[in-house]
Design brief:
Elements (H helix, E strand, L loop, with lengths): L5 H16 L3 E2 L5 H14 L2 E6 L1 H6 L7 H6 L1 H7 L4 H4 L7 H16 L7 H8 L5 E5 L5 H4 L7 E3 L2 E8 L7 E3 L1 H10 L3 E2 L5 E2 L25 E5 L9 H15 L6 E6 L10 H10 L3 E7 L5 E2 L6 E5 L2 H20 L1
Parallel strand pairs: 2-3, 2-10, 3-4, 10-11, 11-13
Antiparallel strand pairs: 1-12, 5-6, 5-9, 7-8
Length: 336
């Protein structure tokens, strides 16, 4: 390893590029009948592919924080506290630690320890078969790993629902929480279904508090823990995080002057400095690079790299399906 910090290096590069690229943005997404085959060709012919994944990818996979999933697993919290979705519930001032950790046990389990309802992550990795690629993601739901991605190809920049850290950031360590989550789910009354996953029991109510002895503590000194999610400067970047950051930097160092596809999937406007701006910067500096943005109602690029860009407005899973159909069609034609 080089000891490089791919996270901060790429952010710095992206911020610098914003000034060069200016504010002239285009949402000219083009014709899907043209752009989808073009994207398929880029996937097949690129020497390197850098995948940047945001929340929109998990949304496409069915990991939605409101609506049916929320009402099914958090109905009692909704009734008791007026919480309307999983995201806002993470900031709710619960009356005590037993209630707060009961909430988090459910939130972690249903967004980290079960497969996404739709196989979009597996579809994506199928499209990357035999390709030289690396993934950088702001998602914390572990779905790339669950889909079978080799973690040496992955940089999870913002943390992991499956990890705790001490409230004291002096300890730059994280702790696996799977065993605790399973105990906390059982303590609330969830039962295993035929697939071995926790489900809401029929005809029984759930408990919104866990026993005091189940409140998670640091195995180092018994102090309080919190989620390993980046929200401020207390976020712990553990040894695994640093290895992934170095691997990302090393991968980027190999791309200069090569044919590269920067494939951005579901990255919103909340954290553009981590994936979007760096991808723009890399594309702007390399005339052989292509920037592809797949997003629902947010597919755009700077005017200065428009000719190097593919912007497709739509559901990511549907686009991946269409790419597969195009590939099958092309194979069938070549066989004639």
């Amino acid at each position: 390893m080089t000891g490089r910090d791919g996270y901060r290096e790429s952010i710095s590069k992206g911020l610098d590029a914003v000034y060069k690229l200016g504010r002239n943005i285009t949402m000219n997404t083009g014709d899907r009948e043209t752009e989808i085959p073009r994207l398929r060709r880029e996937i097949e012919e690129a020497e390197f592919i850098v995948i940047g994944a945001g929340a929109g990818l998990s949304t496409s996979a069915g990991l939605i924080y409101s609506g049916e999933r929320f009402e099914k697993y958090f109905y009692d919290f909704a009734e008791a506290y007026g919480i309307t979705d999983m995201y806002s519930g993470g900031f709710y001032p619960f009356p005590d630690a037993q209630t707060r950790w009961a909430w988090w046990a459910r939130h972690i389990y249903f967004n980290r320890y079960v497969d996404a309802p739709k196989p979009v992550y597996r579809q994506l990795l199928d499209r990357m078969k035999d390709r030289n690629y690396f993934v950088i993601t702001t998602n914390v739901d572990h779905q790339f790993q669950r889909a079978g991605l080799d973690k040496s190809r992955l940089f999870y920049t913002q943390g992991d629902y499956g990890l705790f850290q001490s409230v004291d950031p002096a300890w730059q360590e994280t702790y696996d929480n799977e065993e605790w989550v399973m105990k906390a789910m059982e303590a609330q009354g969830f039962v295993r279904n035929d697939q071995g996953e926790f489900a809401v029991p029929e005809g029984a109510s759930l408990c919104m508090r866990i026993p005091a002895e189940l409140i998670p503590k640091s195995p180092r000194d018994g102090s309080e823990v919190t989620m390993n999610l980046r929200s401020d400067d207390t976020f712990v970047e553990d040894a695994g995080w640093h290895r992934a950051s170095e691997s990302y930097s090393e991968f980027l160092q190999r791309l200069a002057g090569r044919r590269v596809l920067f494939l951005e999937l579901g990255v919103g406007a909340n954290t553009p400095v981590i994936i979007k701006y760096p991808f723009w910067a890399e594309t702007y500096e390399n005339p052989k690079a292509t920037y592809a943005c797949l997003n629902y109602n947010e597919a755009f690029c700077p005017k200065k790299i428009e000719k190097q860009s593919i912007c497709i407005d739509g559901d990511i899973g549907e686009v991946l399906d269409a790419i597969g159909e195009v590939s099958e069609s092309a194979q069938g034609t070549s066989a004639l």
